[in-house]
Protein: DUF3617 domain-containing protein
Organism: Parasphingorhabdus litoris
Amino acid sequence: MTHKYLLPLLSVPLMLTACGSGGDGGPTAGQYKQTVKITELDFPGLSEEVKQRTITQMEGVAGGGAGGLFCMEGNDNGQQWKEAAKQMSGALGGQCETIKDEGSATSIDLEMTCKGTAKGDIDIKMSGQAHPEGYDSKMAFDIKDPASGETAKLSMDIGAQRQGDCPG
């Protein structure tokens, strides 16, 4: 198992940029700046030096292009939380099953397991809270390599803060 194995998972946090639901206590429509902070990267055989370089690279990629700026629509009653989880399942492949879904229009509390993905079996936990000026969330992945049986862990904090109206 190599650290490059984790890089494809970076598309998953970017899917959360769609989350929001203005009008019900969630983010209002506008331009947001996303931040991503890797809080855990435990990968079998990864040296501390490579770990730090990988964290820096992953945070840069996961923070999004264009300086992490993106536009978000509001007023969806939490449907974008659900859509983000659905897109994540599609991106990971394999057979994904939702184990827990206790979120609301302004919160996400989700656990999924995906078996037989190209990356192995993956357990995912997502939690977070939306507010009128953005959102704060946590994601954790446990990835079991089918070849070695080793487990890698990746956890991150993902947030977004409203910057103003969308351009144009």
Remarks:
- The longest helix spans residues 48-62.
- The first strand starts at residue 30 and ends at 42.
